């Protein structure tokens, strides 16, 4: 059942946007069980190197979510993220990156009144790498991506947590469309499947490597030619579980400052 939903959702994204290019956005992280969630991020993107084939992307983000039985997407705090990633364009179609992240995520009970668990939050130190392949030219571009993550979890004061560590694999397809010739307006659609294996702290044991969730998003991106800023607003559907999957609906908004330390005029990428 879950696999048919994933296939249908990917197909819808292709039908809607194929024949249509895009600027990257800061995608919302998963926030667990809820009806709705909201995400805001502030980022800085900077090209560097003699041939500008290296790129640094830094951002800070905040997420809030509803209870599982209501739709107030800013009802309670969910996640805080600091992230740094370095990209290298080593071929006109190939790119790899290395990233590091700190995350603090609130933990809530799964039954009413959905109060904080004990401990109230978990901390995460994450490192990851990704490889990207791009296909197509303006106004349409498709990107295929594989991302591998190592996640280490801690409780408050960096004490041990029930889930000790996790290896997670992510497969993503993204389609972007430049709506106008100056590339100031774009649409970005993506579909992603996530698989993982975890090590529990006590008793010490490993879970099976398996599919866990999917994420489907559609963003509108505005990159004014007069200022080095990109604005992104979008919707994400987070499909959780594989036996009885359920959806969490996200509203996301981010602002990215681009090449603010460059002496040359910023060009749309």
TrEMBL record:
**Short name of one Pfam family:** DUF2490
Name by which UniProt lists this protein: DUF2490 domain-containing protein
Q: Which InterPro entries match?
A: DUF2490
What organism does this protein naturally occur in?
Wandonia haliotis
- Report which superkingdom the organism of origin falls in: Bacteria
